Each structure stands twice: as C-alpha cells, then as structure tokens.
Amino acid sequence: MIRALRTIGRRERINLPDLGAYGIEAKVDTGAFRTAIHCLSFEEQEREGRKILAATFDLDGHSNRTVYFTEYKLRWIRNSFGSSEERYCVSVVLTLGRKRIRSNVSLSNRSGMKYQVLIGRKTIGKKFLVDVSRIFASSRHH
Fold first, then answer.
1. Distance between CA atoms of residues 33 and 105, nearest Å
2. φ and ψ at 61, to 5 degrees?
3. Is the pTM for the entire model greater than 0.90?
4. What's the DSSP call for residue 121?
5. How is domain 6-141 classified at the CATH fold level?
C-alpha cells in the first residue's frame, strides 16, 4: 500500500510542546538541512555533578521561558551565508498538522530574522510534500 504524503506550505503553524510554544509561524526551508529555533540565550551549567544546557526562549513574544536539557551536542552548522558556526543542538517534539515529530534542532539567535523557527529537510524527511505556492496548508487537513 502506497501512502500519500501530506502537503505543507512554505509557511506553517507549529507547536513546540517541550518549549511551551504553540501556534508559532515557521518557515519551511528545503534548502536548510537542520531545523533552527530562535533562542535568546543558552548557558552550560553544572547540577549535581552533571552538565546541563539552560536555554531561554521567547517564542510567543510575551514571556521568557528557560528550558533545561540534559542531552545536547555542540555541532558545526553552516548558515545560509556559507559560514560555519558552532551551535547547541537539542531534541524536541514538534507538531505540524496532526503529525508529531521528534527532531534534532539547532539553537540560534534569530532575532534579526523574520521567522523564529526554520524547518529544515531533516525534520521534513519523507513525511511531507512541500508546495511553495501555499501557506498554512497543514491546517486544512483538520
């Protein structure tokens, strides 16, 4: 049995329940490998002899929320300008339409960007078909 792929647009509303963020407008970018999420600040800390990452988000524009990650990695990420920078990467749950996806995302200060979340190819995978002529296509599946 062949399953039809769900169609998403170039912009979609997503939820990031692990970060307490709902209805966030995200840009779908098939040119980007990894998903990037706007993070105001991040700091490695030590608690009970273990390293953790404290990351502060303001994805709803109303309140800062600090989330603590026990599992994270530092990776070299090449940005759209071709230069590489070291970024923290964490695993979060993202919902797009009715699809729930666990994805490794990079944390970056995107304050100068129009969209706080950029959804890359690794998150989209083979789960969706992107129709760049549409926006908010996944909300029409409900």
1. 10
2. 80, 5
3. no
4. H
5. Cathepsin D, subunit A; domain 1 (2.40.70)
